[in-house]
Protein backbone atom coordinates (compact mmCIF):
# COMPACT_ATOMS: atom_id res chain seq x y z
CA UNK A 1 0.00 0.00 0.00
CA UNK A 2 1.19 3.46 -0.79
CA UNK A 3 2.43 5.52 2.08
CA UNK A 4 0.67 8.45 3.63
CA UNK A 5 2.12 11.85 2.86
CA UNK A 6 2.43 13.64 6.18
CA UNK A 7 3.22 17.29 6.82
CA UNK A 8 3.63 18.94 10.18
CA UNK A 9 3.75 22.72 9.95
CA UNK A 10 4.23 25.39 12.58
CA UNK A 11 4.26 29.16 12.00
CA UNK A 12 8.03 29.13 12.35
CA UNK A 13 8.82 26.30 10.00
CA UNK A 14 7.88 23.14 8.19
CA UNK A 15 8.73 20.56 10.84
CA UNK A 16 8.14 17.35 8.95
CA UNK A 17 7.31 16.48 5.41
CA UNK A 18 7.66 12.87 4.46
CA UNK A 19 5.87 9.68 3.61
CA UNK A 20 4.93 7.53 6.55
CA UNK A 21 2.78 4.50 7.25
CA UNK A 22 0.42 5.89 9.83
CA UNK A 23 -0.06 8.92 12.06
CA UNK A 24 -2.16 8.96 15.20
CA UNK A 25 -3.54 12.45 15.72
CA UNK A 26 -4.95 13.70 19.02
CA UNK A 27 -8.25 15.07 17.74
CA UNK A 28 -10.42 17.34 19.84
CA UNK A 29 -13.05 14.62 20.14
CA UNK A 30 -10.66 11.71 20.40
CA UNK A 31 -7.53 10.30 18.85
CA UNK A 32 -7.70 9.07 15.31
CA UNK A 33 -5.24 7.20 13.16
CA UNK A 34 -4.69 8.19 9.58
CA UNK A 35 -3.50 5.73 6.97
CA UNK A 36 -3.04 6.31 3.27
CA UNK A 37 -6.32 6.70 1.42
CA UNK A 38 -8.20 8.14 4.38
CA UNK A 39 -11.44 9.92 3.55
CA UNK A 40 -11.31 13.75 3.54
CA UNK A 41 -11.49 14.85 7.14
CA UNK A 42 -10.82 17.86 9.26
CA UNK A 43 -10.53 18.22 12.99
CA UNK A 44 -9.14 20.53 15.59
CA UNK A 45 -6.54 18.95 17.85
CA UNK A 46 -5.84 18.85 21.54
CA UNK A 47 -2.53 19.71 23.16
CA UNK A 48 -1.23 16.18 23.25
CA UNK A 49 1.10 13.70 21.68
CA UNK A 50 1.09 12.84 18.04
CA UNK A 51 2.57 9.48 17.06
CA UNK A 52 4.19 8.80 13.75
CA UNK A 53 4.74 5.26 12.52
CA UNK A 54 7.28 5.33 9.73
CA UNK A 55 6.41 1.81 8.59
CA UNK A 56 4.04 -0.97 9.60
CA UNK A 57 4.91 -2.25 13.06
CA UNK A 58 7.66 0.29 13.50
CA UNK A 59 8.34 2.08 16.74
CA UNK A 60 6.25 5.21 17.09
CA UNK A 61 7.95 8.57 16.94
CA UNK A 62 6.20 10.90 19.33
CA UNK A 63 5.89 14.66 18.88
CA UNK A 64 3.97 16.86 21.29
CA UNK A 65 1.82 19.38 19.50
CA UNK A 66 -0.04 22.37 20.83
CA UNK A 67 -3.05 24.12 19.41
CA UNK A 68 -4.00 23.62 15.83
CA UNK A 69 -5.86 21.36 13.51
CA UNK A 70 -5.42 18.47 11.16
CA UNK A 71 -6.63 18.16 7.62
CA UNK A 72 -6.80 15.01 5.58
CA UNK A 73 -7.32 15.32 1.85
CA UNK A 74 -6.44 13.29 -1.20
CA UNK A 75 -2.86 14.53 -1.01
CA UNK A 76 -2.31 13.33 2.52
CA UNK A 77 -2.38 14.56 6.08
CA UNK A 78 -1.45 18.09 7.09
CA UNK A 79 -1.18 19.07 10.73
CA UNK A 80 -0.98 22.76 11.52
CA UNK A 81 0.22 23.29 15.05
CA UNK A 82 1.07 26.44 16.92
CA UNK A 83 3.98 24.85 18.69
CA UNK A 84 5.71 21.47 18.74
CA UNK A 85 8.19 19.99 21.13
CA UNK B 1 38.80 78.33 1.49
CA UNK B 2 38.87 76.15 4.54
CA UNK B 3 42.17 75.81 6.33
CA UNK B 4 44.18 72.61 6.19
CA UNK B 5 43.26 71.72 9.73
CA UNK B 6 39.56 72.17 9.08
CA UNK B 7 39.76 69.95 6.02
CA UNK B 8 41.65 67.31 7.93
CA UNK B 9 39.05 67.30 10.69
CA UNK B 10 36.28 67.09 8.17
CA UNK B 11 37.85 64.08 6.48
CA UNK B 12 38.26 62.43 9.86
CA UNK B 13 34.63 62.98 10.72
CA UNK B 14 33.35 61.64 7.41
CA UNK B 15 35.60 58.63 7.85
CA UNK B 16 34.14 57.79 11.21
CA UNK B 17 30.62 58.18 9.83
CA UNK B 18 31.56 55.81 7.05
CA UNK B 19 32.73 53.31 9.61
CA UNK B 20 29.34 53.40 11.27
CA UNK B 21 27.37 53.02 8.06
CA UNK B 22 29.64 50.22 6.95
CA UNK B 23 29.18 48.35 10.19
CA UNK B 24 25.41 48.85 10.05
CA UNK B 25 25.37 47.56 6.51
CA UNK B 26 27.19 44.42 7.53
CA UNK B 27 24.88 43.86 10.47
CA UNK B 28 21.85 44.36 8.24
CA UNK B 29 23.19 41.90 5.68
CA UNK B 30 23.67 39.25 8.33
CA UNK B 31 20.26 39.89 9.85
CA UNK B 32 18.64 40.00 6.44
CA UNK B 33 19.62 36.45 5.72
CA UNK B 34 18.10 35.26 8.94
CA UNK B 35 14.95 37.34 8.56
CA UNK B 36 14.50 36.15 5.01
CA UNK B 37 14.81 32.55 6.07
CA UNK B 38 12.27 33.10 8.83
CA UNK B 39 9.85 34.72 6.40
CA UNK B 40 10.20 31.86 3.97
CA UNK B 41 9.83 29.24 6.68
CA UNK B 42 6.53 30.76 7.73
CA UNK B 43 5.01 30.57 4.27
CA UNK B 44 3.87 26.93 4.21
CA UNK B 45 1.82 27.49 7.34
CA UNK B 46 0.26 30.67 6.00
CA UNK B 47 -0.55 29.05 2.66
CA UNK B 48 -2.06 26.03 4.30
CA UNK B 49 -4.11 28.24 6.60
CA UNK B 50 -5.40 30.35 3.73
CA UNK B 51 -6.42 27.23 1.82
CA UNK B 52 -8.32 25.79 4.74
CA UNK B 53 -9.97 29.10 5.53
CA UNK B 54 -11.15 29.49 1.96
CA UNK B 55 -12.63 26.02 1.78
CA UNK B 56 -14.29 26.38 5.18
CA UNK B 57 -15.74 29.83 4.69
CA UNK B 58 -17.39 28.68 1.49
CA UNK B 59 -19.44 26.18 3.51
CA UNK B 60 -20.60 28.39 6.33
CA UNK B 61 -23.46 30.76 5.88
CA UNK B 62 -22.88 34.22 7.25
CA UNK B 63 -25.59 35.59 9.51
CA UNK B 64 -25.73 37.92 12.50
CA UNK B 65 -24.59 35.14 14.79
CA UNK B 66 -21.43 34.53 12.83
CA UNK B 67 -18.19 35.42 14.54
CA UNK B 68 -17.28 39.07 14.08
CA UNK B 69 -13.89 38.19 12.69
CA UNK B 70 -15.65 36.59 9.73
CA UNK B 71 -18.72 38.69 9.23
CA UNK B 72 -17.59 42.01 10.64
CA UNK B 73 -19.84 44.14 12.79
CA UNK B 74 -22.29 44.68 9.99
CA UNK B 75 -21.23 48.31 9.70
CA UNK B 76 -18.58 50.06 7.70
CA UNK B 77 -18.03 53.23 9.68
CA UNK B 78 -14.94 52.98 11.85
CA UNK B 79 -11.78 51.79 10.14
CA UNK B 80 -8.78 50.71 12.11
CA UNK B 81 -5.45 50.99 10.35
CA UNK B 82 -2.84 48.71 11.82
CA UNK B 83 0.48 50.18 10.80
CA UNK B 84 3.50 47.98 11.34
CA UNK B 85 6.80 49.82 11.25
CA UNK B 86 10.23 49.12 12.67
CA UNK B 87 11.71 50.24 15.95
CA UNK B 88 14.95 51.47 14.53
CA UNK B 89 15.96 54.02 11.97
CA UNK B 90 18.84 53.92 9.52
CA UNK B 91 16.81 52.00 7.00
CA UNK B 92 16.18 54.54 4.28
CA UNK B 93 12.61 55.26 3.28
CA UNK B 94 11.30 51.99 4.71
CA UNK B 95 9.12 53.43 7.47
CA UNK B 96 8.19 56.49 5.46
CA UNK B 97 6.85 54.29 2.67
CA UNK B 98 4.61 52.29 4.97
CA UNK B 99 3.29 55.39 6.68
CA UNK B 100 2.67 57.01 3.31
CA UNK B 101 0.63 54.02 2.18
CA UNK B 102 -1.41 54.21 5.36
CA UNK B 103 -1.92 57.95 4.95
CA UNK B 104 -3.21 57.59 1.42
CA UNK B 105 -5.73 55.05 2.65
CA UNK B 106 -6.66 57.21 5.64
CA UNK B 107 -7.23 60.26 3.45
CA UNK B 108 -9.44 58.26 1.15
CA UNK B 109 -11.50 56.90 4.04
CA UNK B 110 -11.86 60.29 5.68
CA UNK B 111 -13.02 61.75 2.38
CA UNK B 112 -15.69 59.08 2.27
CA UNK B 113 -16.86 60.23 5.67
CA UNK B 114 -15.47 57.32 7.66
CA UNK B 115 -13.79 57.47 11.02
CA UNK B 116 -10.18 56.39 11.01
CA UNK B 117 -8.25 55.01 13.96
CA UNK B 118 -4.66 53.90 14.10
CA UNK B 119 -3.07 50.96 15.85
CA UNK B 120 0.67 51.32 15.75
CA UNK B 121 3.06 48.41 15.87
CA UNK B 122 6.66 49.48 16.22
CA UNK B 123 8.04 52.83 17.22
CA UNK B 124 9.04 54.62 14.07
CA UNK B 125 5.69 55.40 12.54
CA UNK B 126 4.24 57.14 15.56
CA UNK B 127 5.67 60.67 15.30
CA UNK B 128 4.41 61.13 11.75
CA UNK B 129 0.94 59.77 12.37
CA UNK B 130 0.72 61.72 15.61
CA UNK B 131 1.51 64.93 13.81
CA UNK B 132 -1.10 64.48 11.11
CA UNK B 133 -3.83 62.73 13.09
CA UNK B 134 -3.16 63.82 16.67
CA UNK B 135 -6.08 62.13 18.40
CA UNK B 136 -6.58 59.07 16.31
CA UNK B 137 -3.95 56.70 17.61
CA UNK B 138 -5.89 54.21 19.66
CA UNK B 139 -2.97 52.11 20.73
CA UNK B 140 0.71 51.53 20.37
CA UNK B 141 1.94 47.99 20.54
CA UNK B 142 5.48 48.06 21.82
CA UNK B 143 7.86 45.69 20.07
CA UNK B 144 11.09 47.21 21.35
CA UNK B 145 11.40 44.51 23.99
CA UNK B 146 11.41 41.69 21.49
CA UNK B 147 14.58 41.22 19.53
CA UNK B 148 12.79 39.63 16.62
CA UNK B 149 9.03 39.72 16.26
CA UNK B 150 7.83 36.26 17.18
CA UNK B 151 4.60 34.38 17.16
CA UNK B 152 3.93 35.54 20.71
CA UNK B 153 3.80 39.18 19.64
CA UNK B 154 1.57 38.37 16.71
CA UNK B 155 -0.74 36.50 19.03
CA UNK B 156 -0.90 39.38 21.46
CA UNK B 157 -1.76 41.81 18.68
CA UNK B 158 -4.39 39.47 17.30
CA UNK B 159 -5.99 39.08 20.73
CA UNK B 160 -5.98 42.82 21.17
CA UNK B 161 -7.69 43.36 17.85
CA UNK B 162 -10.22 40.63 18.51
CA UNK B 163 -11.11 42.18 21.84
CA UNK B 164 -11.50 45.56 20.22
CA UNK B 165 -13.78 44.32 17.49
CA UNK B 166 -15.87 42.43 20.02
CA UNK B 167 -16.35 45.67 21.92
CA UNK B 168 -17.35 47.32 18.70
CA UNK B 169 -14.51 49.82 18.72
CA UNK B 170 -14.05 49.45 15.00
CA UNK B 171 -15.72 47.76 12.05
CA UNK B 172 -12.98 47.11 9.54
CA UNK B 173 -9.27 46.64 10.08
CA UNK B 174 -6.51 47.03 7.54
CA UNK B 175 -2.94 45.96 8.05
CA UNK B 176 -0.06 47.94 6.59
CA UNK B 177 3.37 46.47 6.24
CA UNK B 178 6.15 46.13 3.75
CA UNK B 179 6.31 43.07 1.61
CA UNK B 180 9.79 41.75 1.03
CA UNK B 181 10.57 41.37 -2.67
CA UNK B 182 14.35 41.55 -2.59
CA UNK B 183 17.06 43.42 -0.75
CA UNK B 184 16.49 46.28 -3.17
CA UNK B 185 12.73 46.23 -3.50
CA UNK B 186 10.23 46.34 -0.68
CA UNK B 187 6.63 46.93 -1.42
CA UNK B 188 4.38 48.71 1.06
CA UNK B 189 1.21 46.66 1.20
CA UNK B 190 -2.27 47.06 2.58
CA UNK B 191 -4.29 44.05 3.57
CA UNK B 192 -7.75 43.80 5.02
CA UNK B 193 -7.65 41.54 8.07
CA UNK B 194 -11.03 42.06 9.76
CA UNK B 195 -13.44 40.94 8.51
CA UNK B 196 -11.43 38.23 6.83
CA UNK B 197 -10.81 38.88 3.18
CA UNK B 198 -11.21 35.50 1.61
CA UNK B 199 -9.88 34.36 -1.66
CA UNK B 200 -12.76 32.20 -2.76
CA UNK B 201 -11.78 32.30 -6.40
CA UNK B 202 -9.59 29.21 -6.10
CA UNK B 203 -12.21 27.34 -4.16
CA UNK B 204 -12.67 23.92 -5.61
CA UNK B 205 -15.74 21.85 -4.92
CA UNK B 206 -13.71 18.70 -4.36
CA UNK B 207 -13.70 19.18 -0.59
CA UNK B 208 -17.46 18.81 -0.55
CA UNK B 209 -17.31 15.37 1.00
CA UNK B 210 -14.96 16.34 3.77
CA UNK B 211 -16.05 15.40 7.25
CA UNK B 212 -15.64 17.84 10.08
CA UNK B 213 -15.08 17.20 13.72
CA UNK B 214 -16.49 19.15 15.56
CA UNK B 215 -18.71 20.81 12.95
CA UNK B 216 -17.69 23.45 10.43
CA UNK B 217 -18.74 26.41 12.46
CA UNK B 218 -16.89 25.37 15.56
CA UNK B 219 -13.74 24.76 13.60
CA UNK B 220 -14.15 28.09 11.93
CA UNK B 221 -14.59 29.87 15.25
CA UNK B 222 -11.43 28.23 16.44
CA UNK B 223 -9.62 28.98 13.25
CA UNK B 224 -10.44 32.65 12.78
CA UNK B 225 -8.26 34.06 15.56
CA UNK B 226 -5.52 31.70 14.52
CA UNK B 227 -5.80 32.87 10.95
CA UNK B 228 -5.58 36.49 12.09
CA UNK B 229 -2.49 35.68 14.12
CA UNK B 230 -0.92 33.97 11.16
CA UNK B 231 -1.55 36.95 8.92
CA UNK B 232 -0.06 39.35 11.43
CA UNK B 233 2.87 37.05 12.08
CA UNK B 234 3.54 36.82 8.37
CA UNK B 235 3.37 40.58 8.07
CA UNK B 236 5.78 41.07 10.95
CA UNK B 237 8.25 38.67 9.41
CA UNK B 238 7.96 40.29 5.99
CA UNK B 239 8.45 43.64 7.68
CA UNK B 240 11.54 42.44 9.47
CA UNK B 241 13.11 41.16 6.27
CA UNK B 242 12.14 44.35 4.45
CA UNK B 243 13.61 46.50 7.17
CA UNK B 244 16.94 44.72 6.98
CA UNK B 245 16.88 44.84 3.19
CA UNK B 246 16.10 48.55 3.16
CA UNK B 247 18.69 49.16 5.83
CA UNK B 248 21.33 47.30 3.90
CA UNK B 249 20.63 49.23 0.70
CA UNK B 250 20.51 52.57 2.48
CA UNK B 251 23.71 51.92 4.36
CA UNK B 252 25.45 50.71 1.23
CA UNK B 253 24.55 53.99 -0.46
CA UNK B 254 25.64 55.97 2.57
CA UNK B 255 28.97 54.18 2.69
CA UNK B 256 29.53 54.86 -0.98
CA UNK B 257 28.58 58.51 -0.61
CA UNK B 258 30.94 58.86 2.31
CA UNK B 259 33.69 57.32 0.18
CA UNK B 260 33.05 59.85 -2.60
CA UNK B 261 33.04 62.68 -0.10
CA UNK B 262 36.34 61.54 1.35
CA UNK B 263 37.91 61.34 -2.11
CA UNK B 264 36.79 64.84 -2.96
CA UNK B 265 37.91 66.27 0.35
CA UNK B 266 41.26 64.53 0.05
CA UNK B 267 41.82 66.11 -3.36
CA UNK B 268 40.95 69.54 -1.99
CA UNK B 269 43.17 68.91 1.00
CA UNK B 270 46.14 67.91 -1.14
CA UNK B 271 45.61 70.84 -3.45
CA UNK B 272 45.58 73.33 -0.62
CA UNK B 273 48.59 71.68 0.91
CA UNK B 274 50.50 71.97 -2.35
CA UNK B 275 49.35 75.55 -2.77
CA UNK B 276 50.62 76.34 0.70
CA UNK B 277 54.00 74.74 -0.05
CA UNK B 278 54.28 76.59 -3.37
CA UNK B 279 53.46 79.90 -1.72
CA UNK B 280 56.03 79.22 0.93
CA UNK B 281 58.68 78.40 -1.69
CA UNK B 282 57.89 81.49 -3.70
CA UNK B 283 58.20 83.57 -0.58
CA UNK B 284 61.59 82.06 0.23
CA UNK B 285 62.88 82.46 -3.34
CA UNK B 286 61.56 86.00 -3.56
CA UNK B 287 63.20 86.75 -0.22
CA UNK B 288 66.51 85.27 -1.39
CA UNK B 289 66.38 87.25 -4.63
CA UNK B 290 65.68 90.45 -2.85
CA UNK B 291 68.91 90.19 -0.95
Just name the CATH architecture of the largest domain in chain B: 3-Layer(aba) Sandwich
Biggest sheet of chain B: strands side by side, in what order? 3-2-1-4-5
CATH architecture of chain A: Sandwich
Q: What does the overall shape of chain B look like?
A: elongated
Strand count, sense and barrel status of the largest sheet of chain B are: 5 strands, mixed
- Overall CATH class of the largest domain in chain B: Alpha Beta
| C-alpha-based Rg of chain A, rounded | 11 Å
This entry's quaternary arrangement is heterodimer
Tell me roughly what share of residues is in helical segments of chain A.
under 10%
- H/E element order of chain B: HHEHEHEHEEEH
Number of structurally distinct domains of chain B: 2
CATH topology group of chain A: ATP Synthase, domain 1
**The level-1 CATH class of chain A:** Mainly Beta
Keywords:
heterodimer, A: 85 residues, ATP Synthase, domain 1, 8-stranded mixed beta sheet, B: 291 residues, alpha/beta, Pyruvate Kinase, Chain: A, domain 1, 2 domains, 6 helices, elongated
Walk me through the structure.
The complex is a heterodimer of chains A (85) and B (291). Chain A is mostly beta strands. Chain A has a single domain, classed as ATP Synthase, domain 1 (Sandwich), CATH 2.60.15. Helices cover 0% and strands 69% of the residues of chain A. Chain A has no helices and eight strands. Chain B has 291 residues and is α/β, with parallel strands linked by helices. In chain B, 60% of the residues lie in helices and 14% in strands. Chain B has a five-stranded mixed β-sheet with strand order 3-2-1-4-5, sandwiched between helices. In chain B, helix 1 runs antiparallel to helix 6 (216-290) and helix 5 (151-166) packs across helix 6 (216-290). The two termini of chain B are 32 Å apart. The interface between A and B is medium-sized, with 26 and 27 residues.
Amino acid sequence: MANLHFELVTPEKLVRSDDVYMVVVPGAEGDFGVLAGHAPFMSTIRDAELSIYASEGAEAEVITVQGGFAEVNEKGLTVLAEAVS
Amino acid sequence: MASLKELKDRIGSVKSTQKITKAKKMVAAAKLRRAQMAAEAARPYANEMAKVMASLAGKVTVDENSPKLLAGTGKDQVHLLVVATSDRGLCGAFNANIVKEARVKAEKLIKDGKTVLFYMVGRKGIPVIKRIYPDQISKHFDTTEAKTPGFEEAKAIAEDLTAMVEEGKFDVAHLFFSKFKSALVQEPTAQQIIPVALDTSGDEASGASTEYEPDEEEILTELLPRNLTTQIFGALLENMASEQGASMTAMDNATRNAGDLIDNLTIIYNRSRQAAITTELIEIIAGAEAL
